[in-house]
Design goal:
Blueprint (H helix, E strand, L loop, with lengths): L9 H20 L4 H19 L4 H8 L7 H8 L1 E5 L12 E8 L2 E8 L5 H6 L7 H16 L4 E7 L6 H5 L2 H12 L6 E10 H5 L6 E5 L3 E3 L3 H9 L5 H8 L3 H6 L5 E3 L10 H20 L3 H13 L1 H9 L3
Length: about 325
């Protein structure tokens, strides 16, 4: 089994292996196997489309957590220039789970803030596996207020299973830090675009998720709790996570149907991890388009719409759940 592929992706991994084998044979034996390779590649593309056309919610969860899925650092390097990372909350310390700083997007200044999980063991430890502590949220809040002061748009990337549940985080006011971010973001006098690029888990995600535009990539999730956590609470068994995922209605399509987000951003065939260049361009386009629309609005109108949008959440969700 190829560990870089999920279990339902293994047929794709097998075709990948066959293609690489033919390429190697062609090089070693100096044979033209381009037609055979092209035939296999066409079969591979069709298989990818077939598999990803009908994913279950649990499979979407696993794609959102894919080990090769692009992270905040990947989008920082591909979409922004002159990124200058800022550290610390000026109260306790710095938190590697949340990165943020000033940058330029298409030449214009922006404040970029996002959760980062890391890839290598060393990176994961440094970024606390993408589980922010209070100082991370307070750092994010400091940067947001700085952006408001200079009338700079804010772009957030959401990718976390949730806020860090450790005793030290609770002692330093985890819930207060999250609540304050939500409160302040609702009144910031600058455009805010929030994009879920992987997992959007609980208040840990919502603390960066209040904005004028909230967008989810196609194979991402947004939920009050992880499927494993939900299953453990309800059935005392994390093994029922697939069932919990079904009932949580956590996919991008569900969130759009319940009017909790504004847009679902389509990903390349097979997910963003298969073609990061295409995925990145999709994110660039959606940011540019929404940013232009938001900057054309007067700030008092933006704030009014942002508030009304939040106040509609329960009403719109209930109406949709009743089939109205």
């Amino acid at each position: 089994m190829n560990l870089n592929f999920l279990d339902f992706e293994q047929p794709i991994a097998e075709l990948d292996a066959q293609i690489k084998e033919l390429q190697q044979v062609g090089l070693e034996e100096k044979r033209d196997l381009s037609k055979d390779i092209a035939k296999l590649d066409k079969k591979r593309q069709k298989l990818i489309q077939t598999i990803f056309a009908d994913l279950t919610p649990w499979q979407v969860v696993r794609v959102a957590r894919h080990p090769q899925r692009p992270h905040t650092v990947d989008y920082l390097s591909s979409l922004f220039t002159e990124f200058d990372e800022l550290h610390g909350d000026r109260m306790f310390g710095d938190d590697g789970a949340i990165m943020g700083g000033l940058a330029r997007f298409n030449g214009e200044p922006v404040m970029v803030i996002g959760q980062e999980k890391g890839r290598t063991t060393k990176e994961k430890v440094h970024h606390n596996f993408g589980l922010p502590r209070p100082e991370g949220y307070r750092k994010a809040l400091r940067l947001m207020r700085l952006a408001e002061h200079f009338a700079i748009p804010i772009i957030t990337f959401i990718d976390t299973q949730g806020a860090y549940p450790g005793i030290d985080a609770e002692e330093r006011g985890q819930s207060e830090a999250i609540a304050r971010n939500i409160f302040v973001m609702s009144t910031l006098k600058t455009p805010i675009i929030c994009i879920v690029i992987g997992e959007g888990g609980s208040g840990g995600a919502l603390a960066l998720g209040v904005g004028d535009r909230v967008i989810m990539m196609q194979y991402t999730i947004y939920s009050v709790i992880s499927p494993e956590g939900c299953a453990t609470i309800l059935w005392r068994s994390a093994e029922r996570a697939p069932e919990a995922a079904e009932n949580l209605k956590l996919t991008a399509q569900d969130a759009k149907r319940f009017k909790l987000i504004d847009e679902v951003l389509a990903e390349p065939a097979g997910g963003a991890h298969r073609d990061f260049a295409a995925a990145s361009e999709g994110v660039r386009e959606v940011i540019a388009r929404n940013l232009a629309e938001l900057q054309a609005e007067k700030i008092d109108i933006l704030l009014k719409k942002r508030y009304e949008r939040m106040m509609r959440f329960g009403l719109d969700s209930h109406a949709n759940s009743q089939g109205k």
